[in-house]
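User: Please predict the structure of the protein below. I'd like the answer in structure-token form so I can feed it into my own downstream comparison script.

Assistant: Understood. Taking the following sequence of 527 residues as input:
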Amino acid sequence: TMKEFKNRKEKFVTDSGIEIPTYIDKDTSEYKEKLGNPGSYPFTRGVHEQMYRSRFWTMRQYAGFGAAEESNKRYKFLLDAGTTGLSIAFDLPTQIGYDSDDPIAEGEVGKVGVAIDTLRDMEILFDGITLEKISTSMTINATAAVLLCMYVAIAKKQGADLKKISGTIQNDVLKEYIARGTYIYPPKQSMRLITDIFSWCNTELPSWNTISISGYHIREAGSNAIQEVAFTLADAIAYIEAAVSKGLDVDKFAQRLSFFFNGQLNLLEEVAKYRAARRVYAKIMKDRFKAKSEKSMMLRFHCQTAGSSLTAQQVENNVIRTTIEAMSAVFGGCQSLHTNSKDEALALPTEDSVTTALRTQQVIAYESGIADTVDPFAGSYYVEHLTDKIEEGVWDYLKKIDEMGGSVKCIELNYQQDEIAASAYEFEKQIESGERVIVGVNKFVDEGHPDKLDLMHIDEAIGRQQVAKLKKVRAERNNDEVNKNLEALKKAALTDENLLPLILACVESYASIGEISNTLRDVWGEY
């Protein structure tokens, strides 16, 4: 009823708790200095002058399941469907450095991503795919150095120019301690691996994004938009400080840093979030780290629509949710985008649902008109107000984290984890009370008509097949060479020597991810 509508909320606030005025009436000229022009400091309005008028964002679809053969088929399917960049999901054992035949891996092989044990698996994964022609993103953290070396080994086998190989490793282990959990080593040693990657890629792989500093998982764990940006930038500060302390020139490595944010449903707050994140980062790089190059001040980001917003009920509604979230990312100026599939609250996505998700991006790009102008919301009283408020909230958090000793110290004190938990609890309370409506879940529920879906299932035989493949590799390789390379890695781990060349030697001799990770576990221990 009209009466119900008028009184539907006592107080209007964004998901971050920012009070929403009925309307704002102010002169936009006051924003001139804060905004700048697109493609120039402080990059509020985007990192490129022309944005999507000159080139669309990279359309990625995150994919990986079962054995390498199955994932290779999916990648070729996606490339044929028009995706412009690959994004690899690895299974849990691969992410935390265990081989498929390790007892702890039983039941998890190939389940949430593709199983990779040795270089042989990567050879199959990229069979028929020319690495010089595509950009590849790999969601890998604790074992990022190993998977990167496998990718480099494939590129070398293809005769590729390593200077032209482009892509991203996530390589953000701090958010694993905060929100996700796939860490292996203590923070100090994990940070050492990351700075080794920065340094090695600077000379060997100059077009590679060496880290994707990730707010995505922080948001999935229950943070709000302000916390997502603040905790992500606090982690960025920790990585940059670690690299500078190793003697790396900020203007040499910072240009290859990238970010990964979560596209949520509150469209205008999300647009403001991306704009505020760029502005805060530009100021951090210029004022705190004294970067000279504007390229070092650019916050370039990938966005994935929010897995946590998808519902198992009325799954067709997820297409609508993903569309809104993808639009907010494009309005906000993303460089790369993944759209979730409607069935992901229930299973890994089918080819049909993945196609719909990709078509969502293509319709936005080619039909909506959103990409025809740069920063379409600039000057909106409300969006500029929200951008300011988010920026204020982010600076407040950054100041507190600095006062407590920085991001790593705060992680050890559980500060970020506790803040996220409180935010997540508040969100769930609002759903349970009905204050926050989730269509099809706590309102407009359709009890009598369950969705009839063809869901994707992973063959249990894949685990046995993967173990057999691994045994075959171990029998055929030169085990003396493997042992020699693993021993050299073990010795180097006790020094300050860059480990990437040694890991690459292990990988090229077909040492497994478990053998390499266990070698470092023996030296560094586990966290």
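That's the full token string. The mean pLDDT is 93.
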